[in-house]
């Protein structure tokens, strides 16, 4: 919907930014680094008077209640929750995304050949597979960023142009408009949708307050750390209240400390919104930890090697990584992955 306009504008500014790369590089060298000396949450949030900064949310997913409180170091969250097992997908439940007969080749390399897939509604799906198997290509085709050679992608029977969706790019430094503040970057899709200025700001501030994120929205991208920039990218994708959110290796450019923090943020966003999310990851532990199901792809031409459910209850934390069921699920995914690598 709004997305085509946003991507056209992205292409325009990328061309302009490349002409000014030395200047922007100098600004990037001045930005805070992702380390303990420059934490993600150093500054107060810019909120309207009377807006609460300590939200308490009730999760409607599987009857789970969650209270989120920033810890003293500002780099993780404490979840107080009833740990309720997730219900399996009903057999008669319609898929959110239906892919049929998808084909795509680059030159003489066939990436997909009559590929079929159903993506369940309201689940977080991780895509994992051998390098070059077409993980990012798949979500780029679904999101309309690159055309398919053949096949059809439908969203509850509708075309892409009939729905609202969000996309979080891998390279956060080129995904934001460097001449816009954090607030204006987040508001940008709403601007393209002709939403009035006051409503744009109100919706953005409401989103930031609901997430409980302390971030000075008056900063420019070059003044923010990498984690802050990627957080702004995620909020920009969420501000339109998308029906589905695509994330292409959103944490790959962050250090480990910031990656752990961002995983918790994404999990909390998912639990609060129930938005269907499709995440590409090169990290198997991350793929299993975040997902309701892990889509394991083969080498190209890609096929579904396995669509593995993850039964671990939410919210998940560091203790989840050592739980027997999680370890078994990760081991199964690793075995499937290694089997597909050997076949190639």
- Termini separation comes to 39 Å
- What topology, given as strand order, has the largest sheet? 8-9-10-6-11-12
Helix coverage percent of residues?
Answer: 25-40%
Described by strand count, sense and barrel closure, the largest sheet is: 6 strands, mixed
Architecture of the domain at 3-16 and 32-47 and 118-137 and 160-343 in CATH? 3-Layer(aba) Sandwich
Structural class: alpha/beta
What do we call the CATH homologous superfamily of the domain at 3-16 and 32-47 and 118-137 and 160-343? P-loop containing nucleotide triphosphate hydrolases
Shape category: globular
Could you tell me the radius of gyration in angstroms? 20 Å
Order of helices and strands: HHEEEEEEHEEHHHHEHEHEEH
Count of DSSP H/I helices: 10
Bin the strand percentage.
Answer: 15-25%
Report the strand count.
12
């Amino acid at each position: 919907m709004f997305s085509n306009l946003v991507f056209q504008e992205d292409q325009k500014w990328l061309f302009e930014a490349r002409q000014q790369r030395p200047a922007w590089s100098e600004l990037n060298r001045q930005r805070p680094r992702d380390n303990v000396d420059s934490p993600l949450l150093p500054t107060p949030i810019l909120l309207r008077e009377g807006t609460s900064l300590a939200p308490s949310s009730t999760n409607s997913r599987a009857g789970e209640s969650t209270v989120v409180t920033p810890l003293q170091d500002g780099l993780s969250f404490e979840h107080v929750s009833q740990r309720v097992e997730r219900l399996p997908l009903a057999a008669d439940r319609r898929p959110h995304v239906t892919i049929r007969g998808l084909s795509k080749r680059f030159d003489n390399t066939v990436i997909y050949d009559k590929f079929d897939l159903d993506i369940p509604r309201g689940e977080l799906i991780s895509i994992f597979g051998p390098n070059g198997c077409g993980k990012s290509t798949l979500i780029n085709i679904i999101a309309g960023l690159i055309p398919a050679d053949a096949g059809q992608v439908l969203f509850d029977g509708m075309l892409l142009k009939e729905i609202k969706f969000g996309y979080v790019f891998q390279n956060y430094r080129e995904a934001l408009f460097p001449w816009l503040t954090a607030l204006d970057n987040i508001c940008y899709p709403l601007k393209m949708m002709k939403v009035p200025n006051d409503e744009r700001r109100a919706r953005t501030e409401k989103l930031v307050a609901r997430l409980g994120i302390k971030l000075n929205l008056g900063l420019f991208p070059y003044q923010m750390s990498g984690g802050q920039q990627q957080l702004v990218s995620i909020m920009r994708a969420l501000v339109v209240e998308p029906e589905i959110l695509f994330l292409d290796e959103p944490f790959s450019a962050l250090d480990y400390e910031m990656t752990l923090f961002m995983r918790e943020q994404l999990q909390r966003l998912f639990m609060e919104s129930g938005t269907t999310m499709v995440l590409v990851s090169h990290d198997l532990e991350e793929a299993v930890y975040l997902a309701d199901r892990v889509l394991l792809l083969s080498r190209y031409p890609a096929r579904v090697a396995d669509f593995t459910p993850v039964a671990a209850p939410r919210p998940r934390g560091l203790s989840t990584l050592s739980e027997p069921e999680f370890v078994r699920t990760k081991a199964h995914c690793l075995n499937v992955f290694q089997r597909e690598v050997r076949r190639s």
